[in-house]
Amino acid sequence: MVMLASFLKDPEFANVDSSENESVPFKGTILRTKSGKFASSISEPCVSCTTFNILAPIYKRLDQQNQSVRESDFRTFWLARNERIVDWLLYESSSIICLQEFWVGNEELVQMYEQRLGAAGYNTFKLARTNNRGDGLLIAVHKGNFRILNYKEWLFNDFGDRVAQLLHVQSIIPFSKDDDTEQETLIVNTHLLFPHDSSLSIVRLHQVYKILQYIETYQREHKLSQAPVILCGDWNGSKRGHVYKFLRSQGFESSYDIAHEYADSDHKWVSHRNHRGNICGVDFIWLRNPNKSIKPLKISWAEAAFGIIKYQLQKASLDEKDAFDFLRGDDNGNYITYSAFCDALKQLNLTGLPHGLSFQEMKELWVQADVDGNGVLDYEEFKRIWNSTCSVHMDEDSNTEDSNDGSTKEAIGFAVKNAMLFPREVERGIWPENYHLSDHARLTALFSPVKLRSSRQKL
Question: Which CATH number fits the domain 2-294+405-455, given the four candidates 3.40.30.10, 3.60.10.10, 3.40.50.2000, 2.40.37.10?
Answer without folding.
Answer: 3.60.10.10
